[in-house]
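Ex. 9. Protein: PpiC domain-containing protein.
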Amino acid sequence: TYYIAEVNESGITSDQLQKTFLNAISRYDDTALSGLDQSAILSFKKNILDQLINYELFYQQAQKEKIKISNDDINLEIDKIKDNFSSPEEFNEALKANNITPAQLKEDIKRQLMINSILEETRNQISISDEELLEYYNENKESFLELEQVYARHILVETEEEANNLLLQLKEGLTDFAELAKEKSIGPSAPSGGDLGFFTRGQMVKEFEDAAFSLEPGEISDVVQTQFGYHIIKCEEKKEEYSPAFEEAKERISNTLRYQKENEAISTFISKLKEEAVIVYNY
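Predicted structure tokens for PpiC domain-containing protein:
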């Protein structure tokens, strides 16, 4: 057997690398893949090999720590996989197509659960103090600022004359705005009754934005001309600019810091394992 790399005398085969590589690129569409040149593919493969080495190091550490995985845990994971198939036969066919035996699948899952356990152990060592949370809040206040937003609908037509006629119908209360948008608007939001959802300043063309932000909830604009044609805008809801207090932002900050610290802890752990390991590259 040809090993492309060895980690403490445990080999990673070129088949393993190729299989993991093909699995990774299957998530990309053809356009993204056709843009990859030879050096990008080599770099991608090198990253995957690094990942396989990291997993091998985690697995060896899990063995060293004698981490036990029960059959119940393994079967639970197999049941989760089976849930993605419409029948047991379809599941078995998928195993055959991928050249995986049920025993191999069990072994792969056991290995993955052992690695997960080691990673979880590393993550659980993280702690974040209130002082750190407050410091992050004070240093990043601007990122928590929620900008003024408008929730609007619009009707877009080609001529000013048609827009004025529709506006007259709306002002006289002869028709519902959303129904009229479905019937008459030529904009892409017509099927949803002209619904544009919430938007902030800078997301729409200036004439449209100025009109939309000048309205109060329930108000309908005069006819507004833009490069797209003639619009009638209805403001459904408005949210003023808002800066959340520390207590409101605390959970969000905690999640951000935890994510950062967990990644740092895992990187440090990998570096330590690599320093203590004998890694041989055979290419």
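Check your answer against this statement. Residues 246-276 form the longest helix (31 residues).
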